[in-house]
Amino acid sequence: MKVVIIGGVAGGATAAARLRRLNEKAEIIIFERSGYVSYANCGLPYYIGGEIKRRSALTLQTPESFKERFNIDVRTGSEVVKIDRAAKKVTVRTRDGGYEESYDKLIYCPGAKPIMPQGGGKRFFTLRTVEDTFAIDDFIKSENPRTAVVCGGGFIGLEAAENLVRRGIKVTVVQGNKQVLPQIDYEMACFLHSELRAKGVTLALSSRVTSLESREGGVTVHTDGGGFAADFSIVALGVLPETHLAEEAGLELGIKKAVITDEHMRTSDSDIYAAGDAVQIKNAVTGQDALFALAGPANKQGRIAADNICGIESTYSGGQGSSVIKVFGLTCAFTGLNEMAAARAGYDADSVMLFSANHATYYPGARNMTLKVIFERNSGRILGAQAVGYDGVDKRIDVLATAIRAGMNAYDLQELDLAYAPPYSSAKDPVNMAGYVIENVLRGLKQFRWSDLPAVMKDENAFLLDVRTEEEFAEGHFDGATNIPVDELRSRLGEIPAGKKIYVNCHSGLRSYIACRMLAANGFDCCNFSGGYRIYAAVCGEAEESNIPRHPCGIPVTE
User: Is the pTM of this model over 0.70?
Assistant: First the structure.
């Protein structure tokens, strides 16, 4: 059996290695148009920033190591320019010319191509390949630029911005949406906005890039709101499946011309399989068609394609977009659906927000995280989760990603038996707490959110009650709010107007929840402010995520 693989990065490299483990006799050829194979895309920005020191560290394998360990023929600098399905051969172009190569089975892993606006020039860079990375690094070393515009506020854009700042470059991030990382909800992104600005990054939000202009000694990025000049620019506006070969060969295509496969990663041609960023998959939460340009799914798909070629029935059940990113001092992670995606998919969804420490607050070094969990109202099924904070963010999202894949609901989260010791967690882990908070909502606890505030403040029947301490209240509060600390509330119930709806807030949502229980027991109609005043402050740009260790209620931990 002869297997030809187009693309030698995540999916292609994994497929090749798996094929060899399953079939020692197969002839396996990888065609990779770049000069490198099996390289770490996700690590490229960190080489630019100097966190990764050696160029060789970016490549997991080389053509030589593939040959030595797996007896796989890796041909870099070789671009497949045509697939002839009838003849079962591909046409390959190299620097020295071209030739044809036959196959019995073909695995198509071309990846994705960056979206590029009109214009450009030598001072505009993308960050997709090892060559791109070295070109940016060489440019910085030779030209010593002082300013840069990063087009795009997604993963690559934010990682590029951080690492350019590490090189002493003043960075402006231009983003077409009103927030960075559109995969998360706006209020969660606001914590990232504060962190970026605190580190000197200029954010040009709601600015859609329209064209790129080169000029003497620099560039101008034109947007629908004006132009941004700099010494150079990194363009990271997203990607599209690079499937022109598949289209020319007549393979069935789907969303944005991504290749359609079955659960075995088989295309509309039974002898051609596909994996990676160019493949349309199923969203594991909704069951709908989706695209996920992520290394994890690509590697899984490559393995599954190899399994099926070798007669092992293996299936891919879809992805949910679980991701994590470091933005200077903060970590942001998410999985599943955000609120907009849940609504778009037709779910009757709700959400809760928690403010929790990564471990017991009495143990030194506790740091806080904001956790948001989206769930289905009628069942309590977990649909998605987002977290922003410091240590332990990735751990909680991984647990919630597992819970989503298992179809768990809020009550299941409560029952999860998670490891606990003061240096690592709390007896009630934030994931367990999310289950408790969702249960409260499912059992009738009313909530209101930062987006509801304008209407609430205009409502003559509304009474805003702030149950934080007098000191916290003095530092900032909702206009028109009355301050009664929660510990004084029982003795001051007479100050609460009868017949009005009581909207209660504290720093995090915990004390206001206690107050709501107290008020409800005394006949008041009340709503708890989801996420606490800190969410409102973040949305308003008044505060950044604090390093100060706090108890779950929001009170600073004192030594």
Answer: yes
If one counts the domains in the chain, the total is: 4
Q: Is residue 547 part of a domain?
A: no
- Structure confidence by residue, pLDDT tens digits, 182-222: 999 999 999 999 999 999 999 999 999 999 999 999 999 99
CATH (domain of 521): 3.40.250.10
Q: Are residues 460 and 491 in the same domain?
A: yes
Element (H, E) at 473: helix 470-475
* Helix axes of 393-405 and 430-442: crossing angle, nearest 10 degrees: 50
CA distance 355 to 311: 49
Instruction: State how far the alpha carbon of 363 is from the alpha carbons of 367, 434, 549, 553, in Å.
Output: 10, 22, 10, 16
From 42, 109, 506, 540, active-site residue:
42
Amino acid of residue 390 = Y
Do 469 and 394 belong together in one domain? no
Per the structure, the complete domain to which residue 474 belongs is given by 447-539
- 425 in the same domain as 350: yes
From the CB of residue 392, how many other CB atoms can be counted at a distance below 10 Å?
Answer: 22
Pick the closest to residue 511 from 545, 494, 534, 537 (CA basis): 534
pLDDT value of residue 552: 67
**Residue 42: active-site member:** yes
| 455 CB-contact burial (10 Å; exposed 0-12 / middle 13-18 / buried 19+) | exposed
Residue pLDDT, tens place only, 432-486: 999 999 999 999 999 999 999 999 999 999 999 999 999 999 999 999 999 999 9
Domain boundary residue, one of 278, 309, 340: 309
Q: Is residue 453 part of a domain?
A: yes
pLDDT at residue 4 in the model: 98
